[in-house]
Amino acid sequence: MIIEKIKLKNYRNYDNLEIELNKKLNIIIGKNAQGKTNILESIYVLSLTKSYLGVNDKNLIKLGNNYAILEADTLLNSGSKKFKILINDNGKQVIIDGKEVKKLSDYVSNLKVIIFSPENIRMIKEGPSIRRKFLNMEISQISIKYVKLLMNYNNIIRQKNEYLKLDNKNKDYLDVLNDEIAKLSVEIYLLRRKFLDNINTFIDKIYYEIMGMQGLRIRYISNIDYFEDKKEMVDRYREKLDKYLEKEMLYKLSLIGPHRDDFIFVLNDKNIALYGSQGQLRSVILALKLSEIELFKKSSDDDPILLLDDIFSELDIDKKNNLIKYINDNIQTIITTTDINMIDEKLVKKASIFEIQNGKLFPGK
Known about the structure:
Structural class: alpha/beta
CATH topology of the largest domain: Rossmann fold
Shape: globular
Number of domains: 2
Distance between the termini: 27 Å
CATH superfamily of the largest domain: P-loop containing nucleotide triphosphate hydrolases
Strand content: 15-25%
Number of strands: 15
Radius of gyration: 22 Å
């Protein structure tokens, strides 16, 4: 999978930007607040229709304008594809090869990206909502089924929460909702569990290569209990929903389900968020992202696109070298940096260099 060209109009700090990318390695240089990250963010938006920084769509439109356009010409194993997203006050349109895609679930998972940025360390240190967002975004790229399940689940949880807020509630109606919630919850749980199990097949080995330590795993935390038989899982979880119903009616809120799931990183059975140093936490995230590369390769006919947002300044020489091993000719990689000297000379020699100044693109030296 390769992005050949990106076009941005009225996006963030760009009036008009057009950039033709190297099929292998690209380095974007610029001081802070010049627009380097905005380019990587635009690629992420073109993949998943939303920013990885968690901002509202309208904030992606350059000030003083009422719309933004993002476009990417790509080359996949199945052939070339053109992706386009239009954002305006009415929402957004997603378009593939000139045809509007009515459902976002049919758009997501076409263009696969993995992003590694200083922001990622928040996944370990902050609340479970960030980790759930990570799961939802990453699994969505490799499973259309997951996208549709999650959308259906979120809709029915929204209906349930709105109904729970009413003064007069019919328990029979809540039973009907919980029947459907139990089925959807188990399906979502199983896909999340499979994703994390697959990550666990890579992450310990990669962490050992980075830190020389073994025993890193991700532990999934859920209200749902695993059984070999899916029907038994649904039945047991349905019983659990019944036990919580009176409390939910009191609190007027859905208290259990995939929207409350979490996961933690454990090193030799200890939660690394509680005792890990800043360097260890960075290494855990690096191991996670490199594991994703391996997983995405096995899950799709197309390799993902790797986005590295100013992370070379965050890594010591050993971690840089371990990352460089994974930046090979099979994966298109786009790196941002404030200083080209932070990046290994071998990478620089085979890269296309671009320089950004105040939202303007210049060929690098």
